Fold:
Amino acid sequence: MHALIKRLDRLCHPFPGTHALGVAASAVALIIGLAWPTEGPATVNQNAATHSALPLNTLTPEPRQPKPAEPAFRVVRETVKSGDTLSSLFQRQALTAQDLIRVTANEGKKRPLSLLKVGQSVEFRYADDVLVELAVVQTPFHHTVAASDESGQWTIEERHRDPEVYIEHASGVIDSSLFLAGAKAGLPDNLIMEMANIYGNVIDFVYEIRQGDRFIVTFEKRYLDGEFIEYGNILAAEFINNKESFFAIRYTDSEGDTGYFDGQGVSLRKAFLRAPLNFRRISSNFNLARKHPVLGITRAHRGTDYAASTGTPVYAAGDGKVVFRGKKGWYGNLVTIRHGNGIETRYAHLSKFGRYGVGSRVKQGQVIGYVGATGLVTGPHLHYEFLVNGVHRNPRTILDKLPKAKTLPATEMARFAQVAEPLIASIEAQKNNAELALQTTGR
Ligand SMILES: [Zn+2]
Structure:
């Protein structure tokens, strides 16, 4: 009887430890709440905290069924600490070595139960004080579960659940920095960082960003049983920089490669990053940029200075080969990378080098050093130079000479349009709402 109930329960509830009637009920309430966003300009916050969410109809969960009698699992959750093994968790649970052998007997070569990571959760599920299930939480959506039948045989299975995915929009106006505007819009740091990465080849978030720049971003939120689990992908965004609009549409092509493209299917991945460092660490410098709207080049030393704290990672601006790494006069610690088309980039005043030595090939975004104050400087900053055929150039003004960004092939365009059009339309709708709100509040 016990086995039958358990099997029924497993069919209805792949993760027995996580359900409760209350959770199911609140899930329904939440779904209704999200599915019926309040509409109309009067309710749209002009600073645009996240608002209006639409469920992906394909992923909307079915109405919950009344549940059969619940097996009385007692669940004890252990968190894997440094040095822990499954064996030490068993000891903490006062289980024996024989128990461990029985549970893991059929584990197989991949050892999904025994190979634990620090921070991971492991659930011990007891029925009448007898261990009947062991679940290793790989992700909230994937558990490896060992379960015993009545005869004490243990079997292991991978249980997967699909998250309930909701799509939300957020928008904001830059007042002092992208991070502050993003935070004001209710976005978590990692999503703002992701947005900065998506636009990292198109907009220099230090020198090109302006007060009054705006963004709208469409992103996923993933739930399980009505409980928010994590933010998902950015599906689309529009960034309006100095009145110029930059769309970003997430698209996975028929080969399975995912990237971000503008409305015409041109990749936002360009040959060079606009600012070769994590701009998060320099956002405090925004005021300086605002005072000098066309900054970028300081003639005195032919390069762009990015003030940032010592230790800030410096990225290779593009794919290339390290041709110099060492001390050089007023540059202090310098890395020089040679790229194709006669282009060379230099990174000076570094406190430390990355792991790429002279002759190493580097890919865009790899850490080639860390901001410092070596050489002739008054404070820590990155001095960045961009040279074409030995001549210093402002990377922003020579875009035409750079290798052309990848455009989706004609064979992908119809499929791309199917993805892009509704996303762009929904962003436009959001924008109109926000503009109406601005007008009604008289801003
Ligand atoms: Zn400089």
